[in-house]
Structure to design on (182 residues):
């Protein structure tokens, strides 16, 4: 059994991964750490771009069984047959905005990351790649313990795929312009 935890920045991936790692006694493989150690990061003007093709080749050689793998790049660097289950954490964009402001992200970075969560970019790519192995959990109304509980439920029963539609919520709140104009 190998489990992947993915989702946008700030959804709680690392917080939840640490807890699950303790519960199952599975070591953590952090995709970001791996990228740094493997020197597959190309420094751009404002960002660090990971060469996902190179990183995927490195990940291919790693034994993922009895491990928990964490990172937003999961759908781009892990093969479907390498893992048993992929959990996508989803979080209300208004909560993410608070997290990003606390992290002092720039206005541009905030909009980019919130826009990506609203549109469900990582979710789309993860569902497409891992298909029946991928499950969403909406963490917004759950505390850390409740999210951990939900993850364990999904692991044991493989059910409870939660539906998430931030676009509907943001449209109803008349906030499309707020998040999608520059
Ligand atoms: N279920 C939860 N309820 C409330 N707060 C949470 C929950 N899960 C995580 N948090 C808080 O949200 C913040 C972001 O969590 P965390 O750093 O684990 O996210 P992440 O997805 O790993 O982010 P990144 O991709 O940038 O590494 C932290 O302050 C964490 O304590
Ligand atoms: Mg993190």
């Amino acid at each position: 059994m190998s489990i992947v935890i993915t989702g946008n920045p700030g959804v709680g991936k690392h917080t939840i991964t640490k807890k699950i790692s303790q519960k199952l006694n599975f070591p953590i493989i952090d995709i970001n750490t791996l990228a740094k150690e493997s020197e597959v990061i190309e420094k751009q003007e404002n960002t660090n771009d990971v060469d996902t093709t190179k990183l995927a080749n490195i990940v291919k050689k790693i034994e993922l069984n009895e491990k928990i793998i964490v990172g937003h790049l999961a759908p781009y660097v892990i093969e479907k047959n390498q893992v048993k289950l992929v959990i996508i954490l989803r979080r209300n964009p208004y909560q993410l905005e608070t997290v990003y402001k606390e992290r002092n992200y720039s206005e541009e970075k905030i909009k980019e990351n919130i826009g990506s969560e609203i549109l469900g970019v990582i979710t789309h790519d993860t569902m497409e790649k891992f298909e029946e192995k991928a499950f969403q959990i909406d963490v917004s109304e759950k505390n850390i313990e409740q999210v951990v509980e939900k993850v364990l439920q999904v692991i044991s029963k493989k059910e409870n795929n939660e539906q998430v539609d931030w676009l509907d919520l943001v449209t109803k709140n008349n906030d499309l312009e707020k998040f999608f104009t520059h």
Remarks:
- The radius of gyration is 16 Å.
- The CA atoms of residues 35 and 41 lie 7 Å apart.
- The mean pLDDT is 94.
